[in-house]
Design brief:
The complex is a heterodimer of chains A (about 230) and B (about 220). By secondary structure, chain A is of the alpha+beta class. In chain A, about 30% of the residues lie in helices and about 20% in strands. A six-stranded antiparallel sheet of chain A has the order 1-2-3-11-5-8, sandwiched between helices. In chain A, strands 7-6-10 form a three-stranded antiparallel sheet, with no helix packed on it. In chain A, a hairpin with a 3-residue loop joins strand 1 and strand 2. With about 220 residues, chain B is an all-alpha fold. At the A-B interface, helix 1, helix 2, helix 3, helix 4 and helix 5 of A face helix 3, helix 4, helix 5, helix 6 and helix 8 of B.
Chain lengths: ~230, ~220
């Protein structure tokens, strides 16, 4: 049962379309697990639509309807019925959110995985977002990740398995936000590997993508953390 | 809650007057059928099924000036009027092409057209972002189908509540909602522009949403 959800800020910015792509992918992945949040996003879109309906209309003198129809006719070979409604299943058959599989190129296995010691592997994911980094983490069943501190906000959406840290246990579909300065050490639960979608806020200081992604782990290796 | 009280609420929210207090089933039926009479749904249906140009022209006449107004406000300083016009046309072409995907049980035509305009705007901003990753915005902001019809029904009812509550919101709440939804600004951008703490922007939006019965508990 999903019990950690995006807050009103995430859902509002998502519905308004102002959320950075990396964060939006996290919200979209959560929505595939959570009917309640889907309903909220729908209501927020209703709010936006009501506001649009109340805008002062901007009317152009020239009625462009004919030229619009010419464009439509040029694109259509013959008058036809419009494409039928396609109902997309909430989750792909693998149980991973459709949005994640699609952006990963069809399957998580298609990503470039990098092993970080024996318990963790990470695959960066390009979602076309320059403001944040996006990656899939795969933590071995029962194994802890190195304790790490966040320089910026980190969003984690659990795609498979579960993990726990000092604050609680998180299951499939949970949307967990950690803020800058918070420390934690997630541990995958015993029965199954834990797969997460992670979005990290870009550090203010310029540093390489890879360095930033691995920095917490590299630091632990240097300080003698044993994988 | 007494039946009387329910009757009053039903009256207030929907304008449906219930004569027979005992027959709440019939109220439920009336609610589903006529909570939000959506005058435009039939036009979209005719476009979908018959490629009806007259029906489409009526949609065009009503919605084009609103879509244009929304895009001029929300496309940001990077967009000029010609670009806003081009995106407006793109939105209308999608309305024509996607008419069959409109689901009247789930949303009003208003909301459906807003989401098309919103997605087209996100795509425009992305294309200008010099990012070469090809992304279909609809994979992220797609119209999720709700599996439970009951939820759909509640959503349609909620839309009426939103409409009526919006008229009663204080100015400072309308202002932040307007910036978020019509100008397409994030919470952070609204806070920065108004010189308010992020928490204040968040709580104003939450208060407004609560009045519209959108109860996001976090």
């Amino acid at each position: 049962m999903v019990s950690f959800h995006p807050d009103s800020k995430f859902l509002t910015d998502f519905a308004a379309g102002s959320l950075a792509l990396s964060e939006a992918v996290c919200v979209a992945a959560h929505l595939e697990f959570c009917g309640k949040c889907r309903a909220h996003v729908q209501q927020l879109s209703d709010v936006a639509a009501q506001m649009m309906a109340r805008l002062e209309p901007v009317v152009e003198d020239d009625d462009g309807f004919d030229s619009l129809m010419q464009r439509i006719d040029a694109a259509e070979l013959a008058p036809q019925v419009s494409a039928p409604r396609v109902t997309r299943p909430a989750l792909a058959s693998s149980g991973i959110p459709y949005v994640v599989e699609k952006l990963a190129g069809g399957s998580l296995q298609a990503l470039n995985w990098v092993k970080l010691g024996g318990s963790l592997r990470i695959a960066p994911m390009d979602v076309g977002c320059s403001r944040r980094q996006t990656a899939i983490y795969d933590i071995k069943a029962g194994r802890p990740m190195p304790e790490h501190e966040h320089r910026g906000e980190e969003i984690t959406v659990l795609l498979k398995g579960s993990f726990s840290d000092a604050d609680g246990k998180y299951v499939r579909g949970d949307f967990v936000v950690r803020h800058a300065g918070e420390r934690h050490q997630p541990t995958a639960t015993l029965d199954t590997d834990c797969i997460c979608l992670v979005s990290l806020e870009q550090p203010v200081k310029p540093s390489s993508w890879w360095y930033r992604l691995m920095e917490p782990f590299v630091q632990y290796r240097l300080s003698g953390f044993n994988y | 809650m007494s039946t009387n009280k329910i009757t009053v609420i039903v009256d207030a929210l929907t304008g449906i007057h219930v004569d027979n207090n005992d027959d709440m089933d019939s109220v439920a039926t009336q609610l589903t059928r006529s909570t939000v009479p959506d005058a435009w749904a039939e036009n979209v249906r005719l476009v979908a099924v018959k490629r009806d140009r007259a029906a489409f022209q009526l949609l065009y006449k009503h919605f084009t000036p609103l879509i244009r107004a929304f895009l001029l406000k929300s496309m940001g300083s990077g967009a000029n009027r010609a670009e806003a016009e081009e995106i407006t046309q793109e939105v209308l072409i999608k309305v024509w092409n996607k008419a069959a995907s409109f689901n009247p049980a789930k949303a009003s035509v208003n909301t459906w057209i807003f989401t098309i305009a919103r997605n087209t705007r996100i795509d425009f901003i992305r294309r200008n972002d010099r990012n070469n990753r090809e992304i279909d915005i609809e994979d992220i902001w797609h119209e999720a189908e709700s599996p439970e019809p009951l939820v759909d029904m509640q959503q349609r009812r909620a839309e009426q509540v939103i409409k009526q509550a919006m008229a009663t919101l204080p100015e400072e709440q309308v202002q932040v909602l307007y910036k978020a939804f019509m100008e397409g600004k994030s919470h952070n951008e609204v806070a920065e522009e108004l010189g308010l703490p992020l928490g204040t922007v968040k709580s104003r939006i939450r208060l407004a949403l609560n009045k519209m019965q959108i109860l996001i508990d976090r």
